[in-house]
């Protein structure tokens, strides 16, 4: 259990409005330079650099150098999960924020699929007996192992990793769980490789392809308008 002072430090880092805005942008997926973040949150590059230094020191972001540029991204899936969870605790606005339909239908939640497509996928896996739910996780069944193998996902290798295997990740727009953890990431990676889904040009939006419509219908009985 974290010491209360450590929790307070993390809460302070996330709770400052400018840093919260920057973390929200990084949660959308693509790494960004300090200049890009400055333009998106409406602050000077100097101010943003100061905030990024604090986020780096606090372990919430990491930086990668490519040539003359330095790209910032979230430090890892634990940070992404924490930010998603906090978004569920945020007070409801008098005028609710409208989620654009494409983003609500399908997007990435750090490295796994979210939105209606993500929760429908989780429901179908459970309905077909491939996953069995507990309060916070899913367990893979023998039939689920066969399904994943047919899809091209090595479940045995995933289970040997350090990351939680299959988390029930509460979706902030659907208020139902989609598949997170190592399995969620592997499923998303495989579905992108199969071209069942494709990334949109900006942000973390995802679109369903013609191949995906056929594949989801054939393998899981899923279809969408």
UniProtKB/TrEMBL annotation:
SMART domains: HTH_ARSR (SM00418). Residues 1-94 form the HTH arsR-type domain. SUPFAM superfamilies: Winged helix' DNA-binding domain (SSF46785). InterPro entries: ArsR-like_HTH, HTH_ArsR_DNA-bd_dom, HTH_Metal-responsive_Reg, WH-like_DNA-bd_sf, WH_DNA-bd_sf. This is Helix-turn-helix transcriptional regulator. It comes from Pyxidicoccus parkwayensis.
């Amino acid at each position: 259990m974290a010491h209360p002072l450590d929790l307070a430090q993390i809460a302070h880092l996330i709770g400052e409005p400018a840093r919260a805005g920057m973390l929200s942008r990084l949660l959308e997926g693509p790494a960004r330079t300090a200049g890009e973040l400055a333009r998106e949150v409406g602050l000077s590059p100097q101010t943003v650099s100061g905030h990024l230094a604090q986020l780096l020191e606090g372990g919430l972001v990491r930086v990668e150098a490519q040539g003359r540029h330095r790209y910032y991204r979230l430090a890892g899936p634990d940070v992404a999960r924490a930010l998603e969870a906090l978004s569920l605790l945020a007070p409801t606005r008098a005028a609710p924020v409208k989620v654009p339909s494409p983003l609500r239908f399908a997007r990435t939640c750090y490295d796994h699929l979210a939105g209606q497509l993500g929760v429908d996928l989780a429901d179908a896996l459970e309905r077909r007996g491939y996953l069995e739910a507990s309060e916070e996780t899913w367990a893979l069944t023998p039939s689920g192992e066969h399904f994943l193998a047919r899809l091209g996902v090595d479940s045995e290798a995933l289970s040997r990793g350090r990351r939680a295997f299959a988390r029930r990740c509460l979706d902030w727009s659907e208020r139902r769980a989609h598949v997170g953890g190592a399995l969620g990431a592997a499923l998303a990676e495989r579905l992108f490789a199969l071209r069942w889904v494709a990334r949109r040009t900006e942000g973390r939006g995802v679109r369903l392809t013609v191949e995906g419509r056929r594949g989801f219908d054939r393998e899981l009985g899923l279809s969408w308008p």
